[in-house]
């Protein structure tokens, strides 16, 4: 069975408290020139527990993929910071940056999942799609507003609440191992 973990970074592998403690920001200064240092090793260890337990492959859905530009660049950023799960791709960019659509497009193009348009919800959906055919997915993200159709496959973290925490690990594993 193929398992895919769609990974946001800000709010998952880092959080406001960790960034501010590591790199205090002064008024008018932007911290993004040191962006790639903003990875919390404790969150990486939790991510590794999820991928180790499930064998899930990582697809980067974070806005970080825009600056990095490729799967290989994301590997060069995350592997040296301790990520052990296999990073196999990045989601495409949607003109309005709607993460849900970006994930759906990646699933269609790379996992062969044909999505269903749900007229009642006025959106694409996995409900009724050929989803059960040997594929499981998980979305780790701190934003839920553009991920409505994926809410059953999501573990929501908090940018202002610690990012990926121990309490998120088992629910994430359960989603990826569900039958």
Largest sheet: 5 strands, parallel
Number of helices: 6
The general outline is globular
Return the domain count: 1
The run of helices and strands is EHHEHHEHEEEEH
Structural commentary:
- The structure is a single chain.
- By secondary structure, the protein is α/β, with parallel strands linked by helices.
- The protein has one domain (2-177): Rossmann fold (3-Layer(aba) Sandwich).
- The chain contains six helices and seven strands, in the order βααβααβαββββα.
- The strands form two sheets. Strands 3-2-1-6-7 form a five-stranded parallel sheet, with helices on both faces. The chain has a two-stranded antiparallel ribbon with strand order 4-5.
- β4 and β5 form a beta hairpin.
- α2 (41-54) packs parallel to α6 (166-177).
- The mean pLDDT is 82.
Keywords for this entry:
179 residues, alpha/beta, Rossmann fold, five-stranded parallel β-sheet, two-stranded antiparallel ribbon, 6 helices, 7 strands, 33% helix
Short synopsis of the structure:
33% of the residues lie in helices and 17% in strands. It has helices at 16-22, 41-54, 64-68, 71-78, 99-111, 166-177; strands at residues 2-7, 57-60, 87-90, 116-118, 123-125, 135-141, 154-156. The protein is of the alpha/beta class.
